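Quick one: structure tokens for this chain, please?
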Amino acid sequence: MVAANEAQASLSIVIPAYRSHTLDAVLDSIEDLRADVLVVDSSPAEPPELDGKAKVCWLPNRTPAGEARNIGARKTRSEFILFLDSDVILTESARAFVLSHLTRPRHDLVCGVYRTDPKVNGLVAALENAVLKYRLLRPRRGRHALVSSSHMLVRRETFERVGGFNPTLKLYEDVEFSARSARLGSTVEVDRDFEAVHLKAFSTWSLLRHYWIKAFCGFIAQRRGSTVFKGVRVGLGYAIGLTWLAGCILPFVLASAIARPGAGFYDWLAVAALASSPVLLWGSVLHGLPLLGRLLSLFMWPIIGWSVASATISAALVWGWNRVFTSTRELVDWIRIGYRTVVRSGMPIQIIHFVTSRCNLRCEHCFYKETLDAPNPGEMSLTTMATTTEEIGPVLWYALAGGEPFLRSDLDEVIDIVQTHCRPKVFSFPTNGWYSDRTFQTTLRALQRMKRGNLIIAFSLDGPEQIHDEIRGEDSYAKVVETMERLRPLKAIYPNLYINVVTTVMPQNAAVAPQFVDQVVKELRPNAISINLFRYHELQHPPLSPDVIEGYEKATEVYKSHVDLGNVEYYGFLGGKAIEIKEFLQKELILRVARDNEFVTPCTAGTLSYVINENGSVAACEILDAGQQLGTIEGTQRSGAALQPSVSSGRSIPVSITPRVGNVSLPVMPRRASTFRELVQSDEAKDLRSWIRDTQCKCTYECAMSTNTFFSWPYAGKLYRGLAKSIFLNSNRSVSPLNPDRRQITSA
């Protein structure tokens, strides 16, 4: 019992419901807990008020239980949350357990078991309760506990730290949540004293259907999130598995005995042994069942085995087909990307997409700080974004940009749209790292949605703490470090997540840039560092200071030494090594342009790469002026209004201005709205591509230089020769002093 003078943590109870006929009984069972109760109901019709027993949050669209729990958790503020299904009644012992746990918490997450009540549970339900209880309470032997969310008590801090339930899963979301919680360091337990009564009435058919659906969805969920579920025991054990196998074999042995004229004693003995195999479970799995329930298992157990087996086989076939389809589509994507690089008809392999112009910071070197306070940011709607990305099709690299991308509340949906339609081989976006929780939550949701590909998040850091804060604002450095550490545990369960640092060498930090790169590698351990050179936002600009160029060069040299030593993890996906080699060839090009104003390679901007601004305007390059934008994508803003390009400030200038490079005027593009394909394949776009080629347009724009290094000669040849050479160097590496798991090149 709990002492009267002991402090008790606050409690909220969240109950997801859909057309529930047992909700009143459930609410009566928790009345003594005196908690804030919220029913999250997604029934078709708005539910009535519950006479003060609970608040109701009505969701007009059918919502999976996991997402309903997330919504309920966001609407409550207690220290602990009890998730309770709308057909589960807490027993007196369960209520006592909850009160005790609120006073002396022992676990971050704890779930309970079912107790069979003969008054409400028939024999079929009793059989299911016995099996589930056995699975939940089996000894773990070093593996994570299998849990059920039917009645689950969670510390709020734990719930928020691990990101809540996976809203993409309609079933198995409780196992995924507990597995992720355990992987992220939470204590997860099942307690036999935390007993509840399940009011669901099972028939033979509904139980078989229940097992089929759970087995099918469980197989798919575990394959999609194999690293999340690593270490989770399924809870079947050899006894259940072998007796189910016996049940699956039984019909074949029986049919053989009947069909064969010479069937004898041993044939029928085999039939009897297989048919009676559930008896082996009577003393363990089914020991709490009455005699009639045990006898029922002789009939039910073989067909349950068949249900689970057929579901597993069906799921494996579906999974295998999806893998074949995905692999084939990826191959076709590579062929299409290759075709675009050869034919160069204007369709891109690289997109830089500004998804918002909003930002919480005002950095000194930002090109767009004058436009960040616009009352209407004019951001592209998800519908238009889906249409546009579907039209763009597969690309090599897609970069989201801003502003601060995480200010878009729908960023995870944006990422999903790009992944679905463009399937980028490299997918990245920068962030100032200010919003730790929002960044974690959005990144987690994006990773949970992703069925393929990778996600690279680049944190902007422009020097040691004092310099960075002078450039970007007070506490901005500490926020970046905090957010990087918040995300880092996700890399262990989502290997397609990469955490990078991007730093811009400018007058304020040029003197310390080399030492800062060394500090970042040793202290923050990013997958990679993108070192950018400060640049102006127009083709005609003053020369850069020699000190800035020298700082950029030395910072690059320091970074390359770390890469050669294996102190930087870099990327594990296909093409990662090519990106690594490209990084330093690209720096050579940029240095030659910055130092000597030298034309080094034909530019692929407007041919293989484009910029899409948040207002839907399309440009060949960030450096060119707004008058040379190709036009605006037909579509809507998030507000529903038509997309309207801005022509007043920031990335845009009045159309009446005709920019010049040397003595050559840039062709001025007409202002029009059209589809993306029509814009990039228009006559005006062809004229702009010719102008870029004929005038030998050059700049230090990092994104354009990336594509140039890959696909413009002679540097492309140098890159691929270096890639081939690196294959042979890998066998000549030794242990790195900073990272023993990595290797370093030995001197010859």
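Residues 240-320 form one domain.
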